[in-house]
Amino acid sequence: MGDVLAGFHAAWEFTSDSVLIRYERGLRTPKLLQALGERRVPLAALAGVTLTAGRRGTVVLRAEPRPGADPLMEAAAGQLREGCDPYRLVLPAERETLAEYYADELRGRLGGTGPAERHLVAAPEAPLRFKAYDAKASFDGTTVRFRWSWAGASSAKWKAGDQSFPVADLGGVEWRSPEVFEGHLRLLRRVPDAARPPQPDQDPAAVVFGLGYGPVHESLPFAAAVLAAARASGPATPLPVPAPRRDPADIAERIRHLGELHRAGLVTDEEFTTKKAQLLAEL
């Protein structure tokens, strides 16, 4: 192949064994895609290719990554908005025939469709850092560090002190998008504690997001890089631990805070109702 197919916000260059995706840096390009810059996706990392009608006279060519092949998508866990999907290429409808040609070419070169045994797409490179609501997080490729903020960190985190986590001790990450209520990044131990984990705002192994803190284009590449480094250091994966039951007073405080966000217009009616029901179910 070796051809280039240019669309809105990105261009795909096709080679014999991979697709090189270059993202534009224009004002209309989502910040996550700008932060990624470019990504080489081996064909071995793809399970399939689709071409569908888009909005306002467009078509969408999308490559489907195999489960476990891309640390970015694994960390995102289905939470990315459609416009931030790095595997979508939006094209004018008049280029549908050309897009179908490339889709057919790709389909003919794909191999396995099941889960990948290891990451096949490179993670964002360290060093990486971002500012959460309650800490400054940094990762140099071998160690994750949390430096607590005096204005946002809980007393539990201040008592624990600033934290350092060698990736050899980590089994994975838990990323909850900052675009939803209670977004956070939690580091998961390779050998999990038997006790239930505390809530993210009380957990020294987690940082919490807030309005303007831990944006997707900073915190998700960070999470993907840590996840990839942890997986590369050993195969173990932490066992799932049930969520803790909360104190009723804590539930009441969180519902009050949720109500403030709702009144300020930062949370929709549907989001408010759904999250309130979730909090009450934890009593």
List the helices and strands and how they pair.
Layout: E1 4-6, E2 10-14, E3 18-23, H1 31-36, E4 38-42, E5 46-53, E6 58-65, H2 71-76, E7 88-92, H3 96-107, E8 128-131, E9 135-139, E10 143-148, H4 155-160, E11 163-166, E12 170-176, E13 184-189, E14 206-208, H5 216-233, H6 248-263, H7 269-281
Antiparallel strand pairs: 1-2, 2-3, 3-4, 5-6, 6-7, 8-9, 9-10, 10-11, 12-13, 13-14
Helix pairs in contact: 6-7
Overview of this protein structure:
The protein has seven helices and 14 strands. It has helices spanning 31-36, 71-76, 96-107, 155-160, 216-233, 248-263, 269-281, and strands at residues 4-6, 10-14, 18-23, 38-42, 46-53, 58-65, 88-92, 128-131, 135-139, 143-148, 163-166, 170-176, 184-189, 206-208. It has a four-stranded antiparallel beta sheet. Strand 2 (10-14) and strand 3 (18-23) form a beta hairpin. The longest helix is centred in the C-terminal third of the chain and has 18 residues, at 216-233.
What about the largest sheet?
4 strands, antiparallel
How would you spell out the order of helices and strands? EEEHEEEHEHEEEHEEEEHHH
Residue-averaged pLDDT: 89
Number of helices: 7
**Helical amount among residues, as a percent range?**
25-40%
The general outline is globular
Short summary of the structure?
The chain is of the alpha+beta class and 283 residues long. It is 27% helix and 27% strand. It has helices at 31-36, 71-76, 96-107, 155-160, 216-233, 248-263, 269-281; strands at 4-6, 10-14, 18-23, 38-42, 46-53, 58-65, 88-92, 128-131, 135-139, 143-148, 163-166, 170-176, 184-189, 206-208.
